[in-house]
Amino acid sequence: MPKSSKVTQREHSNEHVTESVADLLALEAPMDYKSSQMSMNMAGGGPPPIGKQPDISPDLEDGRPAWNSKLQYILAQVGFSVGLGNVWRFPYLCQKNGGGAYLVPYFILLILIGIPLFFLELAVGQRIRRGSIGVWNYVYPRLGGIGVSSLMVCGFVGLYYNVIIGWSIFYFFQSFQYPLPWSECPIRRNGSQTYVEPECEKSSATTYFWYRETLNITSTIADSGGLNWRMTLSLLGAWIIVCLAVIKGIQSSGKVMYFSSLFPYVVLFCFLVRGMFLKGAVDGIAHMFTPKLEIMLEPQVWREAATQVFFALGLGFGGVIAFSSYNKRDNNCHFDAVLVSVINFLTSILATLVVFAVLGFKANILNEKCVVDNAEKILGLLNSNVLSHDLIPPHVNFSHLTASDYAEMYEVIKIVKEDSFAQLGLEQCLLENELNKAVQGTGLAFIAFTEAMTHFPASPFWSVMFFFMLINLGLGSMIGTMTGITTPILDTFKIRKEILTVGCCIVAFFCGLLFVQRSGNYFVTMFDDYSAGLPLTIVVILENVSVAWIYGTKRFVQDLEDMLGFKPYRVYFYLWKYVSPVCLIVLISASVVEMAISPPGYNAWVQDLASERFQSYPPWALTMCFALIITAMLPLPLVFLARHFNWLPDGSNKLSVSYRKSLTKDTSNLEDETRFILGKNPSEAPSPMPSHRAYLGPGSTSPVELITNSTSISGYGSSYQTNPAPPKSES
Hints:
- This protein has 731 residues and is mainly α.
- 63% of the residues lie in helices and 3% in strands.
- The chain has two domains: 70-362 and 440-661, Amino acid/polyamine transporter I (Up-down Bundle), CATH 1.20.1740; 367-436, no CATH class.
- The protein has helices spanning 6-11, 21-25, 58-61, 70-81, 84-88, 90-96, 103-128, 132-139, 145-174, 198-202, 205-214, 229-246, 250-260, 263-276, 281-289, 293-296, 299-312, 319-324, 333-383, 403-416, 421-424, 431-435, 441-453, 459-492, 497-511, 520-530, 533-564, 571-597, 619-633, 635-644, 657-668, 670-678, 703-709, 713-718, and strands at 187-190, 193-196, 601-606, 611-616.
- The strands form two sheets. It has a two-stranded antiparallel ribbon. The protein has a two-stranded antiparallel sheet with strand order 3-4.
- It is globular, with a radius of gyration of 31 Å.
């Protein structure tokens, strides 16, 4: 008999034998077989729960890939959750919603909904060892559409997210030149005359480079303008990188994560150290973290904080579940949930420090330029006798004019020339006004930040580092997104992962050509606004409800105790059952209201005006917006109805390979184990009162009756794969 068998293990153990054949023969009732995951097809039997299973090594038993180390797994989860949003969305929300005061609602909501739901996804993925489709088929088959919706949202997000990586690749290669190509406006020639490009002169060099040189954007979404060949090649390069990273599953992506997850932190720390030595950096950070407590009480702040918590951790995408499914069953996923959530939060704060240190430097430069330009206006007004020299304080030196000197002159002139002040055309030039210009998304990464870097010493080096960081941040998120797509498909169908991965990347590239037209940026905005927000929120609340209310919170907590070896904190019971569902319902309601009151549209770049202008979507584009939402959510009612009316086979009977392997192992040793226990001396026999007696619910069948009703060992084993009855809700 193998040394690892249960019989041999128990020969050398003084512990009581519980939940085994000994309990059955002693007429004891160690577990609730009626609601057990491997219940027989009896009335009232629940769905295959995530109950206690034989202690095996799943990664060795079922051939499922496993992480090489705990560090590799943590880096994968961190790489998936820490993405571009931490760099260009979180700082914007801080600035918009009260500075440092915004951190309070964010942290509260991270505790109330972020960590509990992240823990929930990690636990079900680790226990059931399937992708998103298999997990929710297993927990409650009628809500199996949750996994399909997650997969579809992953597909939509992956299509446009990789376009952003393509943009970063383009800027990365453009950074290997000095001066940077977006540092100055291009000079045009008309015969012997030269002039500055009008579109650039009206906006700025970085804005012009983004809209005209990079995107070559059209003025409306209706005008496609054809493919942008440079962006098409960049997108192709992005998909090749992603494909190579995930082609071998976690064997390849896990190794990539060592670099792609850690390198962004090196860059952020380098930028932070360099930024702190820049003039105005302290002003930017002080402005950022000056709390505006009156704003913190506004409902909009809490809604946006909840949305950011929700998307920052990657909830509902399926990537969290997929990564967790490759863990060992006894891995401490509670520790992982807390650790990754805290790392994500601290990364957002670090990125905010970096962004506002650099933006403070940029604001200082622009404010100095404003002072110089307006000082020249004042000198012109003095020379033309529009202003009297008596208005200028005697200590002011125009050759070394400071911001405080200009502010003093400005106030004096404004008071004296109150009636005609507007005609003078003077600007106030306040540093705070520059810092209050909130930017996010591509506007922050490809315009504001790039403009600031043009003023850095050795600017090409910092530009290369910055865009290489963006590529790695995007790559980490794309690996998680692709894993969320491929894992459930590989679990459901027998197909080589290499073929599936290459096929997905090829299809995604051709679908992604929509986003590399000259009007492609407008479609990126459309998909970002409509393809993920509402569908993912509904997916996560259904995940929460299916576990907490349909499967039963008490049963789930018991399963966690069996799996982890300790009972999770009692507070999780209330968070999963009451707090998180209520918060998610409020978030869904607020999102629907926001969509209803906000006119659907996009910011179009108007070439003649050299500025953005809001435009409403045409009818066909509006139809496309709602089609994205409906398509992502359609699997939820379809699968529910199909399983309710038995049009679709019940997916819950498709046990994971690890369950079937462990079942085979247990049944093969059942007779030997029985003989061993019966052959023990009376003094060695297990105690009639075992140290652990699991709960046996009312109306359950005695374990002895289960054995006597089973005609053979093989029949006993095959009964595990019968279709369970619908679950009873358990409080």
